[in-house]
Design brief:
Layout: E1 8-11, H1 17-28, E2 32-37, H2 41-49, E3 56-60, H3 68-80, E4 85-88, H4 102-133, E5 137-142, H5 146-149, H6 156-176, E6 181-188, H7 194-203, H8 205-209, H9 220-232, E7 242-245
Helix pairs in contact: 1-9, 3-4, 4-6
The structure holds nicotinamide-adenine-dinucleotide.
Nicotinamide-adenine-dinucleotide binds next to helix 1 and helix 7.
């Protein structure tokens, strides 16, 4: 249904979880995808090989390193000369409690803000001027239900980083809509991936599912399908919006 033929899409964190299923969905819809991965080349190659027409380029960057996003964007552009859609999907969720030692707390806050928010902002900073020269482009930032509902005490930094992602996305939509730049946030609740697995192990599946009226954890396909729709550019006036994917566990 969604046709992404002719579109070049850069997605961060494409070698696992939501990122991998999104890459598969985008390529199936006709897009050429630049798949960014953190450090596991084998995993990234496996994703690439799982896709028949192989419209995929692989790029490594550690987004916990300051300014790594800038190099990533330049490297991505060198593949194709242009990018139509940026999907900021990479993210981390380390645990840090107020009872932990200060250095654990500090490290968790700094790394989480760097990967989940600053690297996202840096990539948007690269993308916006590029999109302006091409009469527009699309930014899709993966936030979280935690941005609105808050999170458990050991993930306050995570919730704060995702709140920042929502505010950043809205600001871009308002500030650069006139230049044809569209910006959307996607806010999943629990999605069955490696990231959610740790929380499920700590709290149990019943705890996770009991406030989800749909009764189960979302599959990554639900998120990937929403991303593919937003990447299509079929609803420009929805710019600035956040799409919730949480089985009605938090209805705003
Ligand atoms: N799974 C969930 O329940 C859930 C819920 C809400 C939001 N999200 C968000 O969805 C996005 C994807 O998460 P996921 O569930 O697929 O988890 P995941 O752990 O499978 O994927 C996270 C991705 O981020 C990449 N990444 C982590 N640290 C990095 C670094 N330093 N440099 C570069 N890349 C790095 C990883 O390589 C991986 O590809 C994240 O932004 C996450 O916060 C997930």
């Amino acid at each position: 249904m969604i046709d992404l033929s002719g579109k070049v899409i850069l997605i961060t964190g494409g070698s696992s979880g939501i990122g991998t299923v999104t890459v598969q969905t985008l390529v199936k819809a006709g897009a050429e995808v630049i798949l960014h991965y953190a450090n596991n080349l084998e995993k990234a190659q496996a994703v690439s090989e799982s896709i028949e027409n192989n419209q995929i380029h692989l790029l490594q960057a550690d987004l916990s390193v300051e300014n790594a996003s800038v190099q990533l964007w330049q490297d991505a552009l060198s593949f194709t000369g242009n990018i139509d859609v940026l999907i900021n999907n990479a993210g981390i969720m380390p645990s840090a409690r107020i009872e932990d030692k200060l250095d654990i707390w500090n490290t968790a806050w700094k790394n989480t803000l760097q990967v989940n928010l600053i690297a996202v902002a840096d990539l948007c900073r690269e993308a916006i001027p590029h999109f302006k020269t091409r009469n527009g482009g699309i930014i899709i930032n993966i936030a979280s239900r935690a941005a609105f509902r808050g999170d458990t005490p050991e993930y306050m930094h995570y919730a704060a980083s995702k709140g920042g992602v929502v505010a950043l996305t809205r600001s871009i939509a308002r500030g650069f809509g006139n230049d044809g730049v569209l910006a959307y946030a996607v806010a999943p609740g629990f999605v069955r991936t490696e990231m959610a697995e740790k929380f499920i192990q700590d709290y149990g599946e019943d705890f996770v599912t009991r406030d989800i009226p749909l009764g189960k954890i979302a599959p990554p396909e639900d998120v990937a399908n929403v991303i593919a729709f937003l990447a299509s550019g079929l609803a420009p006036h929805a710019t600035g919006t956040t799409i919730d994917i949480n089985g009605a566990s938090y209805v705003r």
